[in-house]
Amino acid sequence: MFRILRNLILISLIFSGYYLFISEFFYLSENKFLEIEIVKNEIVENKKEIIQEKKEEVALPNTKKSIDKVQYVVKKIKILQGDTFVSILESLNFEQENIYEIISKIENLYDLKKIKTGEIISVFENSFGEIKKIEFFKNSETIISVDLDKEINLNIRELTKDSFIESKEYTITESLFSDGIKNGLSPDILVKIISLFSFDLDFQRDIRVDTVVSISYEFDEIIETGRLEYNDIKYASIIIDGKQLEYFKFITDDGYIDYFNREGKNVKKSILKTPLDGARISSNFGMRKHPISGFNKMHKGVDFAAPTGTPIYAGGNGIVEYVGRNGGYGKYIRIRHNNGYKTAYAHLSNYKKGISKGVRVNQGEVIGYVGSTGNSTGPHLHYEIIYQNKHINPLKLKLPSGKILEGKELESFKKEYKKIYADHLSMLYE
After folding, report:
1. How much of the chain exceeds pLDDT 90, in percent?
2. pLDDT at residue 67, rounded to an integer
3. pLDDT confidence bin for 83, thresholds 50/70/90
């Protein structure tokens, strides 16, 4: 009996111990599981914060800070064919009253019709999606900013630029233009090279493989936009079969920018026969039946048919003697040159900004644009060359040579060209 009682007590103790072990195990396991869950939750929460911070960092490049450090989201709107400033403001959900006020303010400073297809308008929105500012380029160096924060205010901001001189040299294997592009030259500079040497070279026949082109030129970089603006050539050389043609930029005593060889002889002829690119002759010099009056009449110039807006170049260095309406000539410019010559340009659609009576112009400088004003049957340039008050056929004119430097002016040029050439070599081989 005692043995049975002892076994019962032993069995009870074993079951009790097992029960306590199992209970403690599950208790500890449950707590450990909770700790793991808490750690996991903390890790997940930390990950969420990191993701949010990254999103904010990613968003930063798409924001722009104003002077008062407020962040804006900047949207770029490209002007498409048929767009107007009004239609763009309407697409941005401006009220008609506000549109009228914005347009009126801008028109006091700038003609919005001058904004061209492809240009960009920047729209600045705050964090609530409210448009607080609109910016667009007045020209390559000026931005018009329309502040819409509390009331409509306009600001004109001049962009800053740095000026540089660069030198390049390359050997032609295909053509002057295509090889120039391959060697990092701008099309603007290549056009200037062709124009400069066009008095001495036929680019279809004279340029050959292994011709060496060497050039030094000026350009500006707009700091805020990174845009490059190419200016004057300072030095240019073309070597064909060992024979060299080279020209240096020089500002003459009478204030003209021109190009001379080492002896001080001008590269250019004094007057251009054709003062625009890509035009065809539509009416020659001489007697003809007038297309409007129907009468036979002396045609005192040459007509060049070209699309409206085609740039017209000054035929030579000179001073603008007349600019404005001139009867049947429509919009008209006349330039007086130093050697007894004058050139006249008629039926223009418009004048280049800054062209007015008394202004000094350089040969090849844009002075106006082809049009059809006055007595005209279509867009063209009527071009006249006048010598000692007599009209001359531009196409038969034996062109007088350009200026030849002498005396102190020649000495000044020699000092200048030596410096230009030394700088050119230094930049090529530094």
Report:
1. 28
2. 38
3. confident
- Same domain for 375 and 288, yes or no, is yes
Q: How many domains does the chain have?
A: 4
Q: What is the pLDDT of residue 239?
A: 92
> Is residue 423 a part of any domain in this protein?
no
Assessment of whether the complete model's pTM goes beyond 0.70: no
Q: pLDDT (tens digit, 9 = 90+) per residue, 337-388?
A: 877 789 999 999 999 988 999 998 988 889 999 999 998 888 999 999 888 8
Tens digit of each residue's pLDDT (9 = 90 or more) over 130-145 = 888 888 888 777 888 8
Confidence (pLDDT) at 68: 46
Residues 245 and 196 in one domain: yes
Average pLDDT on 197-220 reads 84
Q: Which residues constitute the domain of residue 123?
A: 66-158
Structure tokens at 235: 């030095």
Neighbours of 117 (CB within 10 A): 10
For the chain, the three-class secondary structure string (H helix, E strand, C coil) is CHHHHHHHHHHHHHHHHHHHHHHHHHHHHHHHHHHHHHHHHHHHHHHHHHHHHHHHHHHHHHEEECCCCCEEEEEEEECCCCCCHHHHHHHCCCCHHHHHHHHHHHHCCCCHHHCCCCCEEEEEECCCCCEEEEEEEEECCEEEEEECCCCCEEEEEECCEEEEEEEEEEECCCCHHHHHHHCCCCHHHHHHHHHHHCCCCCCCCCCCCCCEEEEEEEEEEECCCCCEEEEEEEEEEEEECCEEEEEEEEECCCCCEEEECCCCEECCECCCCCCCCCCEEEECCEEEECCCCCCEEEECCEEEECCCCCEEECCCCEEEEEEEECHHHCEEEEEECCCCEEEEEEEEEEECCCCCCCCEECCCCEEEEEECCCCCCCCEEEEEEEECCEEECCCCCCCCECCECCHHHHHHHHHHHHHHHHHHHHHHHC
Q: Which residue has the tokens 């609530």?
A: 128
176: its two tokens: 């002057």
pLDDT exceeds cutoff 80 at 60: no
